[in-house]
Amino acid sequence: MPAYQLTVNGRGRTIDADADTPLLWVLRDTLGLTGTKFGCGQGICGACTVHLDGRAVRSCQTSLKEAAEHAVLTVEGLSKDGSHPVQKAWIAEDVAQCGYCQPGMIMSAAALLKRKAHPTDHDIDEAFADHICRCGSYPRIRKAVKRAAGGVK
Amino acid sequence: MTSRRDFLKVTGAAGAGLVLGLRLEAKPRLGETVKAAFQPNAFLAIRPDGTAQITVPKVEMGQGVRTALPLVVAEELDLDWSKVEVVTAHPGPEFKAMNTGGSTSVSTTWDTLRKAGAAAREMLKAAAAAQWKVPVGQCRTENGFVLGPDRKKLGYGALAEAAARLPVPKDAPLKKAADYRLVGKRTPRIDGPAIVTGKAVFGLDVRRPGQRFAAVLRCPVPGGQPKTWDDAKAKTVRGVTAVVKVPTGLAVAADSTWAAFKGRDALAATATWDEGAAKEFSSAALEAKARAALTGPADDARREGDPAKALAAATKMLEAEYSFPYQAHVTVEPMNATTHVGADTAEMWVGSQSGNRAQERAATAMGLKAEQLKVNVPLIGGGFGRRLGTDFSTEAAQVAKAVGGGPVQVVWDREDDIRHDLHHPATLHHLRAGIDGAGALAAWTHRIAGPAVLRSWLGGQKAPSQATTEANGAYDIPYAIPAIAVDFAEVEAPTPLGWWRGIQIVPNVFARECFLDEVAHALGKDPLTFRLDLLGDRGIVKFGRDAADIRRLKRVLEVAAEKAGWGRKLPVGHGLGLACHAYDGRTYAAEVAEVSVVKGRLKVHKVTCAVDCGLAVNPAGLEAQVEGGIAFGLSALFSQITWEKGRTVQTGYHDFPVLRLGDMPLVETHVIPSAEAPSGMGEPPVPVAIPAVLNAVFAATGKRIRKVPIEDGLI
Questions:
Q1: Is there a contact between B332 and A124 if contact means CB atoms under 8 Å apart?
Q2: N or C: which end of chain B has fewer CB within 10 A?
């Protein structure tokens, strides 16, 4: 059984687990990075969203083998102190209700703004089409994305 | 000597600063006597360093109690909000009322929290006055300091020890609302920074040294049991450490969640089942029984005047059948609990809305007394009533005990969560309206047929309040109609049921407010004018166990209509619809929806909501509840649970859709200024959203939708 090498939040990691293990469980159970959430395991709810080489991906649908040799960024690695523009905008708009889905939302927002500094409403709809917030924090997510627009390098 | 009337007491040890224990009155349960001894069930501590710790006796699941309740204390005490630290209580003898549901957290604690804050404030003032040798009347408080004559100023921290030695004042004066500087202002959620950095700990994020993870293979038919299985293959899955029979199925423990899931799937391939009593259950059969029950015997929830006579004398009668499906909660954080069983004690981490019941039942399941089980309640990734159930916490205790050795986290996956939810049941509604010779609404009947949530909740018992509970939202129809009959015909169903955000009020108000709209249109009347006329010039009106102030209901209806521009010219294809309700006679909500339908596809553009929930403690939190409540209501227009051969047909978010960001309307919230005590806001926005939207659909298209979910999602 080969061990896999990947970079998580800038730090090299060696993971000894089955190739088909979803990245989600490597992060949560092996590395203890519980900011990335389990919601459905089917790639539908978006709670497990992380960045793989800067792209937003569903960590429950990304195997350890696929993630190996790539750079993974989780909500814990977005900033040291909550100072990422998206995190600041999330606080300013008081987005979270229960908060469980929010790390995934924040990772998608950060990836969107990196890709497109000033997204349209349609871009925002598209970027969050595969995310679920059962509490209904959506109006504030839209506001927070717009507030953070232009601030993500 | 303390008496029942005392609710405040200094409880801290020397050196701890000022620690006040306070007792929030929980309704004694049946057969429970209230002990005379002082048992504090909330704590307020001012530490020598000036920080304040407030223990919240309710659980946080997104409704904002960890912010709102401390705000009430901080207001009366003039605390520096930036120095407030909030902890969630542990269920147990000190905290007996952790049950969090029914939109009651603020309303049931408001008085006590205010009085506690005021008492502490007076004690700190008295301590400062003694030190300065000035009359206490010359001292005042501001943002964590006591201020005295000649610019004297001392921080609360420096005064806490001295204050703790003073008597607790009986009737400390409460602030006037006009002097509030925290209550009524927009305060961001206290957990926000932890949430956005991923540091917030939800139940599923609990990690203990040596922790294992477990999945349970359950029969797809609720109540079924495994008959035969072969654990050989499951045990070869890397990381699996145990496969054991538990009361709810077969538990697979492993060193990771993924290994537990894989082991469970390997086991599933080998299992045969005794599917139990529910194995023939189907939605089609239930619906047929419910339809038959629409004309059979029923239990009265309200009867006024002589509806049969009034209907017989009516010159015109309207009738309609409305239908609402089974619904699931689908909290994004699936059910889970972590248990560490020791020799004669245990500890559990569980996101429970019923911490006390969860503690009692889990302890019993492990052969322990409640006090031998310490329960921690982390943040909850969505409740909506699902986590009032103790099925998952009790199961987690059983699994931990069965697999032995160290902490075990039982994790449900999405399919477990949907199949073994405590679903909110389907109902059929038959409504009739009799119009008299003068064109007035003279008779109203509303028959509801379906399974009873309350009976399932009480373990199969029929409570005297069953009919009013199941007809909530229907029996308290607020309109002045001379003859009214609202009743409930129970249809038994074999699977466990539970409460849902907005409870039975959601389907009942949907049927009531849509049918009333039908009556308005049939009489050629404007739906707003028709409602306002029917509400009439009345004050407080009593309906059975509840009473509502009709003036407050009229006011929210008028404000919502005015702010939404009711009656204005709309873009082609758009329609406006409205609905209103007095929630348990406590919170008044009206919503106006603007919709359009293009190629059958519904677009909700905007919902304008007016609410009167008494004083709004935290308007930012209140608005979030309105936005979320509307999202929850709109989501239900497209989702349902159906049953075939005892199984839910739906297994995940792919076939039980939840509203997405792109479908969320603009929400505009108008809070009616009020000096009344706060009354609760978690649920009231939900029930009115559905009829407001469907009445708007009628206005836009002339199509009357009487069945939820909207068939094939198309109008």
A1: no
A2: N
Å between A132 CA and nearest CA of chain B: 6
Name the residue among A76, A128, A138 with its Cβ closest to that of B198: A76
B207 and A34 within 8 Å at the Cβ level: the answer is yes
**Do B627 and A137 contact (CB within 8 A), yes or no?**
yes
By Cβ distance, the residue of B64, B202, B238 closest to A100 is: B202
Above 50 in pLDDT, residue B243? yes
The pTM score is 0.95
**Residues B549, B543 contacting (CB under 8 angstroms):** no
In angstroms, the CA B468 to CA B448 distance is 11
- Which of B715, B641, B660, B142 has the alpha carbon at shortest distance from A46? B660
Side-chain-facing half-sphere of B49: CA atoms under 13 Å: 5
Q: Buried b vs exposed e over A82-115: b needs ≥16 C-beta within 10 Å?
A: bebbbbbbbbebbbbbbbbbbbbbbbbbbbbbee
Closest in B257, B332, B664 to A29, CB measured: B257
Query: CA–CA separation, B703 vs B715, rounded Å?
Result: 8
Q: Which of B61, B63, B71, B196 has the highest number of chain A CBs within 10 A, making it the mutation to test binding with A?
A: B196
Q: Is A142 an 8 Å CB contact of chain B?
A: yes
For β-strands B483-490 and B441-450, DSSP reports them as: parallel
With an 8 Å Cβ cutoff, are B238 and A18 in contact?
Answer: yes
In this predicted structure, what is the pLDDT of residue B343?
86
For residue A82, give the chain B residue with the closest CA. Answer: B197
Q: How confident is the model at residue B24 (pLDDT cuts 50, 70, 90)?
A: low
- Write the CB contacts of B245 (distance below 8 Å, at least 6 apart in sequence): B226, B251, B402
The band of B620, judged by pLDDT with boundaries at 50, 70 and 90, is very high
In order of A77, A80, A84, the CA distances from A151 in angstroms are 17, 17, 9
CB B331, CB B387: distance < 8 Å? yes
Angle, to 10 degrees, between the axis of helix A138-148 and the axis of helix A102-115? 40
Strand partners, A66: none
Does the beta-carbon distance from B192 to A96 stay under 8 Å?
yes
Closest listed residue to residue B624, CA positions, set B191, B78, B89: B191
Chain A neighbors of B383, CB-CB under 8 A: 98
Alpha helices of B133-243 — where are they, by DSSP H? 156-164, 192-196, 232-236
pLDDT above 80: residue B591: yes
Specify whether the CB–CB gap between B243 and B251 falls below 8 A. Answer: yes
Over residues B106-116, the mean pLDDT reads 89
Which residue type, as a one-letter code, is found at position B388?
Answer: L
